[in-house]
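agent> call fold_tool(seq_1)
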Amino acid sequence: QRPLEWSLIRRLFTYATPARRKLTALSALTAIRAAQLPGLVWIVSLVITGPIATGDVRGLALGVAGYALLALTTDGLFHFRQRYALEIGETVVNGLRAEVFARVQRQPMSFFHRVKLGRIIGRVTSDVEALRVGIQDVLFVSAIQAGQMLFAAAVMAWSDWVLFLVVLGLAPVLWVLNRHFRVRLSHYSRAASDSFSRVTATLAESVNGIRVTQGFVRQETNAGLFRQLLADHSRFNLALARTSAFLTPLLELNSQFFVAILLLFGGWRVFHDAMGIGDLITFFLLANQFFAPIAIIGNQYNQALVAMAGAERVFRLIDTPPD
């Protein structure tokens, strides 16, 4: 019932040793990009509350130039972040597949009587592919989104700590939602991965043993068994999709609900001269940067569970000792 096992994640990154320098550079680029995204919004708010509010044309030109410079830098760093993430993911996948093949080669013949060929193929193909997606996309995208929330929260707390306390009220609600859906998502992700392994194993064995199947006239029987395996796999995937489809809109609705509360409370403070209209605009722009990653992280969470299920299965095969 532990969806994200950090021991598995640490073990995965031991395969990134050949690309250690790129991993260090990627970690730095991830932190910088997480700060740049709220920085762009902060510059926009400064331009609105500064030069535009006062009619300063020169200040407006300088603000736009600063925004353009930061935007170009952000896109340039995004190129290298994408590139390094893809290269590191490929390095890990290459090392995993090579080790799986080497371990399988050392297994005795009895191992291949116990373990179907399709299950081994499923580990090397679909499970390792899920790990590639988890490393290249899920891990670093989630890190950037979480960093963006932290930087936005820091600027919001510095800008108006009273309104920021309202934002902090979101944390218990998110914790309850995550606790409710975490176990179900974890269960369905592992079940879907395991059912797909059974499908690939049956397919590989059926094609490899087609002479025996036809010799004993078992075509219809085997087809019925395969259809049942497909139905099970479809059922688990649909249950996973339904659960995820409940979680993501709930996160989005929760964010919009808190934005409405901020609008009401912030408007009341402006009416009573507790804060300026420019400060309210700045806070709302940053609040969007804080709430936007929540739905993205919710979507990434589902893929992270699939990657964790794949990691468990791949390492279970690697750690199987020869008889």
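agent> call fold_tool(seq_2)
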Amino acid sequence: MDKAILITYDKEDAVNEAKGLCEAAGYEVVHTIQQNYLQKPKYGISGGVLEQLQEISNKIRPDVIVYDEILKPSQNYNLATELQREVLDREGLILEIFESRASSAESKLQVKLAQLRYEMVRAKEKVRLANMGEQPGFMGIGKFEVDVYYNDIKHRMQTVKKKLQKAGKQRELHRQGRKRMGFTTISLAGYTSAGKTTLFNKTTGETRTQSKELFTTLSTTTRRIIINQEPALIADTVGFISKLPAYMIDAFKSTLEELTYSNIIILVIDISDSQLELKKKFASCMRTLDELGVKKEKIIFALNKSDLIKKEQINYKKELLNLIENEKVVLVSSKTGENIKELKEIIQNIIINQNPHKYKKNEVEGVAKTFGNWSC
């Protein structure tokens, strides 16, 4: 495993997440520098912190410096020049994780598009630096002229977009087919590593890879299940994360758009997180769902890993998230299966409300009570 020095914010949740990202990308954090502010004009950090970093870097000799913020190309160049080491900012780190985790053809295309957009944003500065004769290896671009360089990136982006559009059309056909057959569609959403895939496995009998590492899931997997003898489809989707740039969300649009078309969204929340992490992650998830155009009335809040904390802590955290009086909140443990039945009952109630014509009034109560088991 390559060694990394991590520069991040002086907050527990920021440190934990940044270390998790480094581990997911295959880097061992051997030293951490914590700062209140990481957006100084020239280097991102102050000159004094840079001197400290140079000294530590010369002793430890890391393979990479990970900077837990979005750096401008000039800042990246300045830092790398002073330190004589590769500098990887937050976006670059996430892209490395995406690239290593992408398994399906579509997810590989999505990652490629995100990488090209990342490169496009930095193209002007790279060309300017190259023209000045300052061409560091980690961001060198050979002898390309600016128009050739731009056109090359644009051409590759167009090629990838066309392939993704084709995949998107195929998804649309699948959606139309499901709609004609009357399937209720359910999507699992949530912050990365909240336990979505474990819950997916519990409800479907699948054995998808599940891990504490971030971004285990990059492509959507859909399986058929039975609820009260009626077929439904449940999908596991890519996890959210804070400070994920819009172009990355857009690159995964064809995966994330399944959330927009779903009848029900199960937002999986790790209730065992610290208060600070919980609030940040919950806000990030709700913001992303809002940006995707997901209606709030479709959302069920599954407070996962409830077996890891005490009941009074759970009540306090529910209040913290303003979920105390929300009827669509359920405590679950995707590991032990706790309260999965209650989750199904909430799903069934939403299905009844969304499709009142399917159920006679005198049957509604009975339908809600007589659940069948979920199965593949």
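agent> summarizing second result for user.
The two ends are 39 Å apart (CA to CA). The chain has 13 helices and ten strands.
agent> awaiting next instruction.
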